[in-house]
Amino acid sequence: MTGQEETASLISSSRLDYQTTDHVNGAREVLDEGLEFVAEQASVAVFENAMANDQSEEEDDTVEVGWTRAMRTRHQDLSFYQRPSMLVLCTLLVLLCVTESLCFTPAIALTMKKICDGLLEVNDAAADLAKRECDPKKVQAIMSGITSLLSISTGLIGTFMSAKWGELSDRIGRVRVFGYIAFIKIFGNAIQLYALSPAVRYHKWGIILGLSISPFSGGILAAVAIGNSYVADIMESEHRALSMSIMMSAIYASIGLGPMLSGILINMFNGNNAAPIYFSLLTGSLSAILCLTAIHEPRHEDALKLSHTHFMERKDSLSSSKPNVKVAATLFSRTREYLRFCSLQAIDVLSPVKILWLKPTASGSLIPRYTVVLLLIIDVLFLCMTSASMSTIVLYATYKFDWRAVKLGYFISISGLGKAAVLMLLSPAMLYALKKHYRSLNNSIDQIDVFCIRLSMVLLTLSTLIVLLDNENESSLFVLAVLHALSAFCSPTLQSSIIKYCSKKFTGQCFGGMALIRSAVMLALPPVFLMIYGSTVSFRPEIFLYVISACGVLAIALTFFLRIVEDNNVLRRPSEVALNAPGRQDVSQVASRRASTAQSLRQNR
């Protein structure tokens, strides 16, 4: 039996097992996303053709389940370091995240040193720079301006790239995209090292440009999005929440380990702040080599072709809308056509977010759509209480309690490594206990998900209230870090809950859409908290904590509006009904066909 016939056999057998198991549950794994490229037609013949295309869309989703299981069977005989697994994924993510987090603190120190040298060079070019000191207020002012510009540029770049990387991983593979991200991080860190080198003269825009290369990798959020897609490729739905928790624990540990390892390297090399950046080049190179040589792709090659087909159809549809300036007679007409084309391009950039706006079910229910929207809002509020406000909390600690590098390092380590420990040890035990009392659902949010989300929001709200009630004691901030660590399972629970409602062939786009929303939030909210803090620091520096507490109360309230649906018939898509209607081809006949190319999936029967 050839490899292709073996794959087809595995697909057919796994598909038939899947149908037998889930038929009683109303074909719960069958999801419909519709065809964006199907135009509106008036004739009955074309209408029937469109219905056939809708059915093929369902076939894509069910066949992709078979592809996933076939790939797991194919990889069983590989070595442990080659076989797609959580160990391989976590190792790769640790290398990528450490490559980025190693540069956090050295970049700040090197930039301030560069600014100081630049000020001395301008004021007195003939003076011995090593024997002079520059005005710290001027350094802080320039540093603040550079940081603000970098925040805007890196935020915009990261927002769009995090979504694009997720979509690209659907078409060319998760491992290949991880390799591209590693190369961008290596190149960005090398340019950053050159721009901050003592051999290069100070130039404000040169520093900004040098520090704006790495964000094209999409940052931590892109790594999380592609990692979640990787988990969806290798794990069944009932195991994804735990697997995503393990993955997030590796990421949090890397974020906490990076600054600590950076300090150790600086001390080892006699205070050389560039040493961690050199070491980041080694970790980035190692991750790139692993992606090119050892790690195997978890996504089936036919699934990659199918995703690429969908992309090309959308691209062709967008190209057909390109304005014809020769046809447009007036300047107004040409301008209008050009703006229309630009708006379509902008919409295409945001296409991963559109995937998260789900269609009504066959019964007309909007519960899946509203549930996903509620979960996204809760995720935004979660970011408000954690990542988006963390820079303001650090400034509050330096102002209120005069914290410096040592205590700030302890604070970051407790938060980062604590989250890793919670996700690695506490979260699995808690999920095991909850599954004994509550039923786990594959197609809807369940009691386990709601409990985890609500508990996390209560802990986060409590942490902020403790700081407000005991704002004269610095230990309250360490309590905040501990409670933040205990709420770490909220993020993977939210994302695994959202993906239950999304199509399996668009997992990369779904996670990319979530990453796009999270990046936009991280672009907009940190400056808002900093603005509130800056305007109130002279009389009530803790005012911003009341805003965070209000976000927590709102998030807790929203969890009571989440609808749990145990009846899979309520969640059935319109095309699922069409599949089982009289005169339609049986799904088992579809599953027995060999799914070799995207074209064969879409042929009319």
Automatic annotation (TrEMBL):
Compartments annotated for it: namely: Membrane
Q: Does the keyword Transmembrane apply?
A: yes
**Pfam families for the chain:** MFS_1
GO molecular-function term, one example from the UniProt record: transmembrane transporter activity
Q: What is its main location?
A: membrane
Its Gene Ontology cellular component terms are: membrane
Cite the entry's keywords alphabetically.
Membrane, Transmembrane, Transmembrane helix
Its transmembrane ranges are 86-110, 141-163, 175-195, 207-232, 244-269, 275-295, 372-396, 408-431, 451-469, 475-494, 515-537, 543-565
Look up and give the membrane topology term.
Multi-pass membrane protein
| InterPro entries to which the protein is assigned, alphabetical | MFS, MFS_trans_sf
Protein name, UniProt field: Major facilitator superfamily (MFS) profile domain-containing protein
The lineage, from the top, is: Eukaryota, Fungi, Dikarya, Ascomycota, Saccharomycotina
